[in-house]
Amino acid sequence: MSFDAAKTLLLIIDVQNDFCPGGTLAVEGADSIIQPINKLALSLAEKGGRIAATQDWHPAGHISFASSHKDCAAGEMIDTSLVKGQVLWPCHCVQGTSGAAFHKDLALEKVSMIIRKGFRKELDSYSAFFENDRQTPTGLEGWIRSLGIETVIMSGLATDYCVFFSAMDCKKLGFNTIVASDAVRGVGIPEGSVEAAVTSMKSSGIEFISGNYV
């Protein structure tokens, strides 16, 4: 694959403590992607590319928390006033807590934009581009268009949720969309969700690459 690195954005999705080993919603192997992400960010930045990161940033009592709903458990699905099929999760990435902080080993020196998402109490956000009502923009699209970005490389957590929705939106918005397969990991809830997400992304024309590709 060939693309102009100077017109490429690396998007680092939700590499936060609560999604890493020891966190309240830990993704297996999450810490193993940090070094590949750091290496990719440095390589891309040296070639004139840009780096952005997203950060789950929930208020206490967020609608996606199972604890916010009586007699509900993590993994269940409910309909809310704004979203049908909201998955309920353990309490995670609460604003200002250590669980919401980026992993200490993630190199942020080259990051020039951080998008905080899911900060509305009644609305969750998986995609880096839109909240889960599929209408409310996060502001990322406008920023990267202003930079003349043509290609977006996805990395981070989790393959079957925030990476998936971000990649699908990115492709629909007309950007050349790539998933760095050695720099993502999935949560696997429900069983088979990672495989289904990868299949959907590939069938939508999203490319998967790994190794020293920048």
From the coordinates shown, what is the CATH architecture?
3-Layer(aba) Sandwich
- Global morphology: globular
* Low-pLDDT windows of residues: none
Count of separate structural domains: 1
Q: What class do helices, strands and sheet pairing give?
A: alpha/beta
Oligomer: single chain
The number of helical segments is 4
Helical content class:
10-25%
Main-sheet strand order equals 5-2-1-6-7-8
Number of strands: 8
Rg result: 16 Å
- What is the third-level CATH name, the topology? Rossmann fold
Question: What is this structure's SSE topology?
Answer:
Blueprint: E1 8-13, H1 34-46, E2 50-56, E3 77-78, E4 86-87, E5 111-117, H2 140-146, E6 151-157, H3 162-172, E7 176-185, H4 193-203, E8 207-209
Parallel strand pairs: 1-2, 1-6, 2-5, 6-7, 7-8
Antiparallel strand pairs: 3-4
